[in-house]
Design goal:
Layout (H helix, E strand, L loop, with lengths): L5 E8 L1 H7 L6 H18 L7 E8 L3 E9 L3 E8 L8 H4 L3 E8 L7 E6 L5 H13 L2 E8 L4 E8 L11 H9 L4 H6 L2 H9 L13 E2 L5 H11 L1 H11 L2 E4 L6 E4 L1 H7 L1 H8 L4
Parallel strand pairs: 4-9
Antiparallel strand pairs: 1-8, 2-3, 2-5, 3-4, 5-6, 7-8, 10-11
Helix pairs in contact: 8-9
Length: 280
């Protein structure tokens, strides 16, 4: 909002969200909840300066045991959920149960990481996140989330710390009331410009150029090989002897990796060669 202490973000993920869903078999209510979490994490990523990863994790004792969304500073994301085979649609407490939400910002080697842990509160994820910002960041925040199999979308408004920028004392309450009128169907079917016009056409809104997000998992066969290598040759060979091979499924993109006896032997071959080449 021009000449004010109110800022906003709008996210609408179509192709990237659909790419994530292609390899999943979550119940429909879980897809919607995970989509809301993806949209929310992308919204938060645009308000925080970081060089690394921003991770939202919600876990509890309900039918949905775990939700994890990770967004990178390069605007890629991945997400996963652990849940029962059958999950009924319901409130946040009915789906996730009693639990907590963890938000982690990994800054890389140059800066300290940050982690905030708060109890899950509210009937919907958007309410839990608004409570997080109020409690941990002291920022008045409103968030509106929606998702289906075609789009994950969200709108976020925040009132920045007091400044002399605006003399409109009612602006925050006014724009929040306007945003409260947005319907899930509007977020999921209309273009971003139209959504903002419908809500705030009587306010001074400046819209910046949009950015793109992509679904991308950073797993790879080489990363899995390094993990197996870290087990040590004896333990790795013992797993192969017991199971016939080592099979690993990525929890984010569901890519499957299989290492048979030959693969595992080759992992440690360079060590064996180095040892045999030593001169005593």
């Amino acid at each position: 909002m021009d000449r004010s202490d109110v800022r906003g973000e709008l996210v609408q993920l179509d192709a990237a969200w659909q790419s994530l869903l292609k390899s999943t078999r979550y119940p429909e209510p879980v897809k919607r909840l995970l989509g809301e979490a993806v949209a929310a994490t992308a919204l938060m990523a645009e308000t925080i300066k970081f060089d690394g990863n921003l991770t939202l994790q919600a876990q509890g004792d309900g039918p949905v045991k775990l939700l994890v969304v990770q967004v990178t500073s390069e605007r890629t994301f991945r997400a996963t959920a652990k849940c029962d085979e059958t999950v009924e649609a319901g409130s946040l407490s009915e789906m996730i149960g009693k639990g907590q939400m963890v938000i982690t910002v990994e800054q890389g080697e140059s800066r300290s990481d940050y982690q905030g842990v708060v109890p899950l509160e509210g009937e919907r994820l958007q309410e839990a996140l608004a409570a997080y910002f109020e409690r941990s960041e002291q920022l008045s925040t409103g968030m509106w989330l929606a998702a289906n199999t075609d789009r994950a979308a969200g709108l976020m408004l925040q009132k920045l710390p007091e400044s002399q920028v605006s003399s409109d004392d009612d602006l925050w309450s006014r724009v929040k009331q306007l945003a409260d009128t947005v319907k899930a169907d509007e977020l999921l079917t209309l273009g971003g410009t139209e959504v903002l016009h419908r809500l705030f056409h009587e306010e001074e809104v400046r819209v910046f150029e949009g950015v793109e997000y992509q679904f991308r998992c950073n797993c790879s066969r080489n990363r899995i090989a390094n993990t197996i290598y870290s087990l040590g040759e004896d333990d790795a060979q013992a797993l192969v002897a017991e199971r016939g091979s080592i099979e690993v499924d990525c929890q984010f993109c569901h890519q499957q990796y299989r290492f048979d006896a030959v693969d595992v032997t080759q992992l440690f071959a360079s060590d064996s060669a180095s040892s045999s080449d030593q001169v005593h």
